[in-house]
Amino acid sequence: MATDALRSQVATKWQESFHRLNSDAPGISGLMNFSEAWAISTQYLYPWDINNAFVGANGRPFGKDLDAARPAFNLVNHSRRLPALLEIFLDDMRQNFYLIENEINQYMERYEASQETAELELLIAKLMEWYKSWAPPQELGSTVFSSYTLNFQTRLFSALPPSFAHGFKTLCARLLSPPADDLEETWDPNIYAELWKDFEVLGLIDRYESIIASVGYEFIEDHVLSRCTGEWGKPMLEELRVWMSEKVVPWMLHVYARGASNAEEARSMLQGVGSRFDFHINKTLCDLRTREIFDIIIDFPDSMGALQDLRDCLQRVDQRSNLVKSLRKSNQKRLLHPGADTKLILQQYVATIKCLRIVDPPGVLLFKVADPIRRYLSIVANLVGDDDGGDSLVDENEPIQPLQQPELEDYTDPSWEPEPVDAGPEFRTNKPSDIISTLVSIYDSKDLFVKELQVLLAQRLLLITKENSDRVERERKNVEILKIRFGEAALQVCEVMLKDMTDSKRIDGHVQSQKDSVVHPTIISRHFWPSLEASDLAMPGQFKTLQDEYAHEFSVFKPDKKLKWLPHLGTVQLELELEDRTVEVDVPPLEAAFIELFADQTVWILDDLISSVGSVDRSSAIKALSTWVDHGVLKEDPENTFRLLERAEEPSESTVRERDLAALPASEMDAPPLSVTQQQQADQMRVYWKFIEGMLTNLEKLPLDRIQSMLRFAPGYNQSIEQLSGFMEAAKREGLVVVRDGIWRLNK
Amino acid sequence: MEQLTSSLAPPRSSPKSSAPSSTQQVAGSVAKRLSNELMTLMMSSSPGISAFPKHDGNLFEWVGTIEGPSETIYAGLTFKISISFPSNYPYVAPTIKFDTPCYHPNVDITGGAICLDILQDKWSAVYSVQTILLSLQSLLGEPNNASPLNPDAATLWDKPSDFKTQLMKYYRPVSDST
After folding, report:
1. N or C end of chain A: smaller count of CB under 10 Å?
2. Is residue B149 part of a domain?
3. Which of B22, B50, B79, B178 should we substitute to test contact with A (largest number of A Cβ atoms within 10 Å)?
4. CA-CA distance, A728 to B48, in Å (whole number)?
5. Within-domain flag for B16
6. Among the four given CATH numbers 3.20.20.70, 3.30.70.660, 3.30.230.130, 1.10.10.10, the one describing domain A533-649
7. What's this model's pTM, rounded to 2 decimal places?
8. Which of A699, A709, A713 sits opposite B38 (nearest CB)?
9. How far apart are the C-alpha atoms of B95 and B83, rounded to whole Å?
C-alpha cells in the first residue's frame, strides 16, 4: 500500500545513492568504476594464506599491489562505502582464520612435545607475520586498523589452546631471568625488547597480564630466597631494592610502561605495579625471616641485619601474627621440651627479648611469644648470674630503671602512641622495659620474686667457704643491682643476709684472735634468713669440744647473744691418720661425725651410729657412711655393720654400696642445705589451710567434696580429693577440725 | 531490692555454674579483684573477722563472720553477715547486712541493714572486704549514736546492763541459726 509520498522518497534515496556511487559520471560509468574499485579493494584486503600465496608478476602476492589499490580505496572511501568494505573484510577474516588456527595447532603440538619455549617464540613470530600480512593499509584510516586489530586479537585468543598460557609463562620467565651461562651483571633485559613489542602488538600482554605479574613475583621470590636465606649479618632490604630497580624495573618498563612517551609518564604508569612488586619483596623476605626466626634469635647479635629487615618488612606487611605463630611453634618444638637445659631456655628467652625489642619496640610481639616460655621457666636461679656467665641479664649498656609498676598511660606525652592493634587486652607493659623487668614479670608478683631471691641467696651464701669468701662481694653486687629495680625496702632482708656474712667474718676474726680455733662459723640472724631445715644432728667427740669452746669465746665477745649451732650445714676438712695411710678429705659434717665415732671403737652397727649423733634419718646416715666406704676407710660387713679399715683392703665388689645408693631417693643425693620445693609445698599447704579455715569459719560445716570445690578459690590449688582427705585427716589429728558423718567443722 | 537484683544477676558469672575451674570462668577484673581480696583476707589472719564466698563458682556472694571485740558489750558473741558485691565493684560499695540479729544503734534489728558511712556516701574503691569487716567490728564497740537506725538501742547504749539484756534477747548463737 505504498503511498505516493513513500514512492517519491524511495526514488529520492535511490537517486542519491546512485549519484554517490556514480559520482556524477556519465551514464553508469561511475557505477562501473565503483564496482571495479570495490573488487580491487576486497581483493587487496582479502586475508590470504601466506604459506600458499599466488605470487603475481611483480613478485608480490596476487592482488596485493598497494599502488594499484590506492585509487580504488579512495573511490570506495569517497563513495562512503568504507564501513561495508570493513564488514566484508572482517567476514572474510572470520572465514579464513582457520588458516591461523591450523598454524597455531601445529606449533603448539610441537611445543607440547618438546616443551621448548623457542617453539613459542617461532609461533609468535609467525603470528606477527600473519598479522602484518592481513593488516589493512594505513590509507583506510585508524578505525579500520583498530577494528582489524581487535578482531584479530579476539580470534587469536579463542584459537590459542589452554596450554599456551602455561607455555607463555615459561617463556616470560625465560625472558626475565638472565641466561644461566651469562653473568648477572652483564645481562640486559632490553635484549628482548622486540619480542615484548610483538607481545604487545598481538595483545598478549593485556591478555596475560596476571601471568606476567606472577612471573615477576616468582622471579622476585627466587632471588630473595637464594640471596637472603641464612644471610642475617646485614640488612638485605636495601640491596634487594637496588636489585629490583636494576633488573626488574627495565623489564617492567616493557610490560607495564609501554607507550610511555617520557620517563615521567613511565614512572607514573609503573607506580601501581612497582608498589605491588615492592610489597612482594617485603612479603617474601618477611616470610623467609619468619621461618628462620628461631635460628635468627639463636644467632643474635650476629643476626642484627635480619632483625632490622624483619622490623622494616613488618611495617609494610601485616604478618605479625604469623611471626608470633611461627616463633611459638618453634619454641614449643625446639626449646620447651624436657631435653633442653633451663639455662639454654633462659639464654634463648633473653635473646628473644632482645631480638623482639628490635623488631617491635612496644613489646606486643614479645608479650605474645614469651607467654609459653614464662610458664615453662622457673628462672630466678639463673637471674642472679652464674659464675660461668652465659648471657648476662644485666646489660651494662642499658640504663637501669626501677621496676615498672602498672600505671595509667600519660596521654599528654607528645610521643604517646597507641598500642599496636594486635595487642590483646591482657597485654601488660605499655612501655618498653628492660630485661629484668620482663623476666620478673614471669613471676606474678614482685613479692614472690623477692622471696625466691632470698631463698636462693641463702643457698648460695651458705655454700661459701673461707676459700671463696670473695663470692660474697659478687652476691652483694647482684643485690645492689636488683635493689635499683626492686627498691631498697624489698631487698632489705637480702641486705641483712649479706651483712651477716661480713659480720661473721669480723666476729670470727675477733674470736680467733682470742683463741685459735679451726671452727669458722657463719653467724646468721635467724629472722632474716629463710627457714633452714632443722636437724637434730649433735656433733660427737672433738667436734663437740670445738663447738663449745667457740661458743664460749663468742659469748664473752657478745654477752647478749647465744650461738645456736646448725651443725648439719657446712664442711669439715679432715685428716685421718690410719695405721698404713693418711686420708685427707673435705666432707659434710655428718660424715665427720661418724668417722669421729670410729676413733674410739672400730666396729659399729648402723642403729648405734645413728643414735650417737643425735637423730638423723637413716638414708642420710647410709649415704654418709657410704662416702667412707668409697674412700676405703670403712667396710660394711655384714649388712648394717661398719668396720674401720686401719689397713687398706683391696676394694671388694662394690655391690653393697651400689645397693645402698640405689635405695636412696634421688633428692637425697645432693640435697641442698634447705629444700626449696619442700618449703614451698609447706607454704602452699599453709595457704590452703587458711582457706579451709576461712570457709569453715564462715560456712560452719562442709562435706569433703565441697571443701575441695571451694578450694578452687585458692590460687594454684591442684590437689586431688584424696590428697585433701589426707590433709584433713592430719588436721584432725592436730585437733584443728572435727568430722561427723563426713561433715567437717572447725574444732572450737 | 537492689541487693536482690545484684544477687540474681552477677556479671560475667553464672551462679549455677558447677563446672570445674569455675573461678576461671568468672572472668573479668571484678572477679580478679575479689579473688585477690579473698587471698589477702585469708592470709592476713586478722583476729575475729573472716569472710568466704557462699558457693563455689560465685565470687560475688560472701558470708562473713565477726566476733564481738573483747572488752565491749559484744565480747564473746559471733555475728554472721552476708556480703553481696555489685557488678561494678569496687566502684560501688558492696551491700552488707547482718544475718544474726544484732541489737545495735546503727543496725536494723529486723532487716539487718547497717548504717555505716563507708558503706554509703563515704565509700571509696580503695576499701576492701577486710577494711569493711574491721570497720564493722569496731562499729560494734563504738556506735554512731547521732544517726541511729535503732533508736531504742541508741537510747539504751549508756545503760550497759539494760543494753546487754536487750542484746541477748535478740541474739541467736551462730550454730543455732544455721
Report:
1. N
2. yes
3. B50
4. 23
5. no
6. 3.30.230.130
7. 0.44
8. A713
9. 6
